[in-house]
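Crash report, auto-generated. Payload:
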Amino acid sequence: MRYFRIVLRKLAWAVFTVVFVICLNFFLFRVLPGDPARAGIRDPRLTRQAIEAIQVRFGLDKPVINCVESLNPFTPGDCLINPLQTQFFIYVSNLLRGELGISYHSNRPVATILREQLWNTILLIGVAQVLAIVLGMTLGIAAAWKARTPIDYLALLGSLMAWSLPTFWLGIILLFWGSTSLGLPTAGKSTPGANYATLWQQWADLGRHLILPTLTYTIVFLGEYMLIMRSAVLDVLSEDYILTAKAKGLSTFQILKDHALQNAMLPMVTIIALNLGFTVAGAIQIESVFSWPGLGKAIFDAVGRRDYPVLQGAFLLIAVAVILANLIADLFYSYLDPRVQTE
Amino acid sequence: MIADGVAAHALTDISFTLREGEVLGVVGESGCGKTTLMLSLLRLLPSSGRITSGEVLFMGRDLLSLSEAEMAEVRWKNIAMIFQGAMNALNPVHTIGRQIGEAIIRHNYVQDKKLVDNRVAELLEMVGINPDRRRQYPHQYSGGMRQRAMIAMALACNPQIVIADEPTTALDVMIQAQILELLATLQEKLGLAVLFVTHDLGVVAEMCDSVLVMYGGVTAEYADVDTIFNAPQHPYTQELLRAFPDLSRPTGKLVSIPGYPPRLTALPPGCRFAPRCPHVMERCHQERPPLHTPSPTHLASCHLLET
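Recovered output after restart:
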């Protein structure tokens, strides 16, 4: 029952944060200068009617939110219109129906564009994160167990190097090495113009395309996870209750498994959640280097084209991902550490 | 023991005997090696510490010559330990019941899962905790209850020896008294041999059969409790007793021993107590005093005893 109330409270906070983000995200892109109609004005070939048509198509003919003068009770202005006709309300009501507007650049619905690319990003990040978490944690535990031995120093050196490598540089090096010596594909998620006889062939081709970006991403995060896991385990191993466990006659393996891991997982959960949330966007560098058709590349391209609706949609998606990841981390936290529940 | 990068001997020349059902008090100032001594008995020293020589004989077996796996069998089943400050000695993410049950399962004290649970309940009842609270976590316990739970845990496998390392530090006076009473009752009831580490001489007088007084990592004096309190031979024991407030003279000024116990990395060459000793002689600064035996059951290391 108490757990249920915690879930409810955390959920309420998450919803509140999402609402706040939606508002902020809306006004951010209304404050920014430029829209397709204004860009069109500079083109002498566009007629006035054509410009107006563009404004109507993207809903830019309506006021952003009701005019400010009408809010003054002493000299009420006459620009007050039906609030349901303002851009803000139209945006929110479209959002509730799952529509994110129309791309300025491609004229296609933003939701459709983002949906395709989100899946590609999740595929890339999902595989790489699982690899990085499993390998990083295993290495971290091993290094902590064998602390101050050659194994530890080697793992430490490798992880520090992996952590400090610039992502794009590592990507380019792997791209160069992978495409020349291993003959792996360098761009995209499938071979252009390929005809697959079976579904299996299609998956194999996708897998070959995934190898290099996944490898880059895994290496970048492996180091961080390993270092944090190592120091968390070492921290826990110096606690008094570890000595108690040892005095009870438990073996080193039992102590690690039953007493050290659950406590050492607490900082890891925070880091993993933060990374998962932010890496929906953080794959920009890798996706650009490997031309992976994911969300990161969509953001990168949209910035160049000033495609505000796509950016707005992507930002909202990222914000929701971060909030969701934090919510999950919070709930997982209270599962791992009973002390959290009573707060 | 490695301290500040220098190898130092934390403990030398310590010898004592613990008989069945005996309570041996180990007293001395902080930093004189009491906890180190207790941890070496169970071979639980941190990785920087090593036992270079000596024997720990338990029922005829030398614990120092056992393999790590054999030693793990002895821990808790034969010799259990109550740590100072049960705040941190219990794992915050497991229930009290699970942590007590873990020791029972480890040493196969009882086999069946249901029986383990029963034993946990029985142990908690024995130390005065409502058995229903075995499903709670350490943070839901008060300081005194945690120490009680720690005692229950120590008794889980019915050990022959319990090492109590300052079991009442960080508890308020009332709770201290309750815990000590509980320990005394259980000791008597179960016929436990107890190694009781403390710096409270009042507790020693009340609970212990014999006393080991340590100073700077060596034996200062070792005798039965009456001898220690009525006829102490070592100046350190005498000073320690003088520093203990006397209830019959409540207006008397509190006495303290001037100076500090020596650091392990800078031990004086002669007697370790020489810099603070009121009866110090020239030779005390150069020559380590051997253990003298004023009577067959009495050990003291002081040059004054040489006659």
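Post-recovery validation: The mean pLDDT of chain B is 88.
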